[in-house]
Design goal:
Number of domains: 1
Oligomer: single chain
Order of helices and strands: HHH
Structural class: mainly alpha
Number of helices: 3
């Protein structure tokens, strides 16, 4: 009878050890995804800043009657919209999605992003589709 109890306890310890390993793997996975997204947003911000400087430089050097000025101004408008979207993604939306993922990771079931976050993402998607159509139209003209 003593051997049964000790084997039962070792089974429980094995289960605990297995659960701890799974939890550690899950935490590491969560941190890796967080770091990937955060690094991506930082890199995107740096690339957009470099592009903004280049656009600004070319606009400043262009003459009013220059053929490229209208293209540069349109490109600048698209770029400003992309910057606005990046700012929203890296602040309000990112924070809400991080909150949801963190709470789900902790075991809270039924946690969803705020309605405003979903609406923002939907509007961004529609805006990107409109911008894509405008760019294609400009390229064909």
């Amino acid at each position: 009878m003593h051997s049964r109890q000790s084997s039962g306890m070792s089974l429980t310890r094995r289960d605990e050890h297995s659960s701890k390993k799974k939890l550690i793997k899950l935490v590491i996975s969560h941190l890796n995804n967080y770091n990937k997204i955060h690094v991506f947003l930082i890199n995107l911000d740096e690339e957009m800043t470099a592009a903004e400087k280049l656009i600004r430089y070319n606009i400043d050097k262009a003459r009013i009657n220059d053929d490229r000025i209208s293209w540069l101004l349109k490109f600048n408008d698209y770029h400003l919209e992309m910057r606005r979207m990046l700012n929203e993604l890296s602040s309000t939306i990112y924070n809400d999605l991080e909150r949801v993922l963190t709470l789900r990771f902790r075991g809270c079931i039924g946690i969803e992003p705020k309605k405003g976050t979903i609406d923002h993402l939907r509007q961004m998607k529609l805006g990107m589709e409109r911008a894509d159509k405008l760019i294609l139209r400009e390229l064909q003209a």
